Amino acid sequence: MIQHIDVHAVLQESVSGVYTDLVTRPTGRVVRERIERAMATAQDPVTVTRIDFTGVGCIDYSCADEIVAKLLRDRRAVVVLSGISEGHREAIEPVLAGHGLAALIERREGGNGELEALGAPEAAAALVDELVARRLAVRTPAGTIALTLA
Question: Which pTM was predicted?
């Protein structure tokens, strides 16, 4: 099963006011804790968790560390990041690389469920190899990665 978590909605529920930006470590901590609760209370067995950043204006390094890096360190399911803008990527990628972590992101352009590994090169290669070995993803003839789950 693929679980979908809307980060923008979680942010709106987590802080007072109408915020679209993920900035400051305390904000990131509150959002991550809510995401962790949602992941822990899923009713069906979750194989993949899609964390959707659509609607999030910007994310700073401290929130990228607090949300993405910490979720990946303790991952219980495969985490796929979607709705990632170039600005989001600029904050997330160096945080992942700095921690020796990798994540999968859904490509925005073209879509078709194509994924890209982002982060530390060794961790990215290991992540893709693990997903292929677990038959959760395949390498396509075009050289991309695709989830095998709908």
Answer: 0.89
